[in-house]
Amino acid sequence: MNSAKKIMNQQNSDSEKKSNTVAKAATSKTRLGKSSGRNVKAIVWSAICIVLVLVLCIGVGIQQFKPQVAFSVNGTKITMDDMMYPIYVKESTYLPYDEMYQAYMGTSVWESTYQGSDKNVPSGISNKIGIKQEVLDEEEAYEVLYQEAKKSNYKLSSDEKKKVEEYVTQAGKGLTWMQKLRLSMSKKNLTKRFEKTVLADRFKSDKQNELNKEVDKDSVIKKVSKRDYREYDIQYYAVPLSKTDSKGNTKKVSAAKKKSYETEIKNLAKKAASAKDFTKLIGSKDKTDITYNKAEFTEKDGWSYLSTANLKKVKAMKNGTISQVFLDEEAGYYVFVKMIDNNSTASYQKACDSAVTSAQTEKYDKWYEELKGTYKINVNASVWNDVTIGTMTTEIVTADDLQKMSKKSSSSKKSSSSKSSSSSSEKSSSSSESSSSSSSSSSSNTSK
């Protein structure tokens, strides 16, 4: 009986233990389930946050690497990638002169007064400011004219497409792949650019020719003075009464030197009176400061080698005559002259041509400004204001690089010219041999 009770008690105890164990396990599972749920949620939220951060970082990265817009024309965006090539062209044109400017002018070529021809650049502006405006104006014009060309159904001809290919090849000549990369000068970018400029240039040329017909040439030429542009063509021997040193300083020659010059030039003038060739009075071995040259001057501009009084005497000379020696202290020269032509029309003709060209250019400029006014052009100041000419491409392609490229180009041209000359000589020789052979054959046939 007691044993049975013990067994029953043991069983009950085991049941209670099992029950407690199951209850604990259930409780443990419940707790584990809640904890796991919280962990999963945390992981999901962490993943979402990471994804959002990555998206933001990628977005910012893309924005940073995306080319910045310099300006737009009727919604068409021109980026700084597009502007790098024209900026490079300008900077590489001026950069080789920078060292000389630093040495002789005491300032960089970029800080010197603007030397371009952009009418929108006011006088007294530095090169770096003027060239910057010049680049912007030119690129705006290319885009406007290109859009007009497309409106007029202009398309590149096969010859123009070949020209584009040549321009692309030439543009990248001498540059390393890294330089091209930094200048955004990929084949694709350059092709796109030159397709635009070639088409725009043709459209501009056609428009200019059309507008030229509207210019009354006769009325323009009537305004040019024949008297002012009467030209005098002369040959002369002269010696300056001052010398300039390597630093640009001018110093007058001594009295003794002037006396020596006077004797020399008077003897030369005597020799000229009986010489058959006025141009060869000084021999190649003669040591003298007197030099021979030729010049032309107009009634309007005069000639700096002579004072007004002495110039009047020269103007009165007949063709073929030789003047006295002018010891012109006022002008700073000892000189004598031979009159070649006292009434040349060359300068007058040039002045007429220039006046007509100016009138035609003015006509085109007026037309273009009116056209440009119909376009919406927006310059992105936040980008374009950061552009400083003289610093954009000069570290990518240095002055030394440009010098090496120039030497290589010259060497290549000489080599090409030499090969062409050699080939031409061989062809000539071959042709001569062929001709000789043909001649012999002909003679032989005749004798037969």
How is this fold's topology laid out?
Blueprint: H1 2-65, E1 69-73, E2 76-79, H2 80-94, H3 98-104, H4 127-151, H5 158-171, H6 177-182, H7 187-212, H8 217-221, E3 231-240, E4 242-244, E5 250-252, H9 255-274, E6 291-298, H10 308-315, E7 326-328, E8 333-344, H11 346-372, E9 377-379, H12 381-384, H13 399-447
Antiparallel strand pairs: 1-2, 1-9, 3-6, 3-8, 4-5, 7-8
Helix pairs in contact: 2-4, 4-7, 5-7, 7-11
Word description of this protein:
The protein is an alpha+beta fold and 448 residues long. The protein has 3 domains: 1-66; 70-213 and 365-384, no CATH class; 231-344, Roll (Chitinase A, domain 3). It is 60% helix and 11% strand. The chain has 13 helices and 9 strands. It has helices at residues 2-65, 80-94, 98-104, 127-151, 158-171, 177-182, 187-212, 217-221, 255-274, 308-315, 346-372, 381-384, 399-447; strands spanning 69-73, 76-79, 231-240, 242-244, 250-252, 291-298, 326-328, 333-344, 377-379. A 4-stranded antiparallel beta sheet has the order 6-3-8-7, sandwiched between helices. Strand 1 (69-73) and strand 2 form a beta hairpin. Helix 2 (80-94) crosses helix 4 (127-151), helix 5 crosses helix 7 (187-212) and helix 7 (187-212) crosses helix 11. The chain is elongated, with a radius of gyration of 42 Å. The N and C termini lie far apart (160 Å).
